[in-house]
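To start, one record:
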Amino acid sequence: MVTNDTSALVAHIRARNAKTEAWVAEDPANRWAGLLVDDPAHWAAYGITTPEQFDHYLLVCDVYEGTRSVFGYKPSWAAINAMTTAELEAESATLSRMAREDVEREAREEREHAAAVAAAMTPKAFTLGDLFPALG
């Protein structure tokens, strides 16, 4: 049975999918994305019947995966699911910032390592006097 809430949910999901499809269409040779299931029965099995519940669920997923990516462990789903939408948004922003900082740090370390290897592998001219100052 389709109710007003589930109709709103389906419309909400389809609007998100349309944005995703438009984003892919801007550069189809270099972009790919999956679409969200828009079957209300699928989401009802998760206890989701409204756009607000759906958005909350996606934020919970983002924070769960973000925590796993940044810290390397799987957090408690129940604890994250109990957070408010505002708390989830703040946590997601923090995790995104931390992930960006990790990527930047790793890139900087790789550049520094490459420069050190290049410097170590660059031959330098020397004399015997440089090697044995007492002979000079």
